[in-house]
Design brief:
Distance between the termini: 6 Å
Number of helices: 0
Number of domains: 1
Strand content: over 45%
Radius of gyration: 16 Å
CATH architecture: Sandwich
Largest sheet: 5 strands, antiparallel
Order of helices and strands: EEEEEEEEEEE
Oligomer: single chain
């Protein structure tokens, strides 16, 4: 499997900012790493919304991020009848979500004025 990491730096003007991968990506979203900036970090409690630009598919949405972190976004898989699959009736079966030829859009809110953070999107 070919794996590629895309760095997206998102700077804010007045508490919000938007950034995109420099190119469209195709593959499974394996992980997203947020690295809190050392000199002008977002305020604690920053909101993060990561989506596929064209389809609007939600990849990661979290309301109160305080520190550098790693997220492994997953979606529940379904049977051919459309029912959500579980391992034993309680534990959800999940897989990485796939995107095809879309830029990844990252929006931060309540981050503070003139702040910066970097997100690393790993696609494979």
């Amino acid at each position: 499997m070919h794996v590629k990491r895309h760095a997206v730096t998102v700077s804010t003007g007045t508490a919000t900012g938007t950034g995109y991968t420099s190119v469209p990506v195709t593959g499974r979203i394996l992980e997203i790493r947020y690295a809190k900036d050392a000199t002008a970090p977002y305020a604690d409690g920053v909101g993060v919304a990561v989506t596929a630009e064209g389809s609007g598919t939600s990849i990661w949405s979290e309301a109160a991020v305080n520190a550098s972190c790693v997220r492994f976004p997953r979606l529940q898989v379904h049977s051919t009848a459309g029912a959500g699959l579980t391992y034993d009736g309680t534990r959800t079966v999940c897989e990485p979500l796939a995107v095809m030829d879309e830029r990844i859009k990252i929006v931060v809110t309540t981050a503070g004025d003139k702040k910066t953070g970097t997100f690393y999107v790993t696609v494979g």
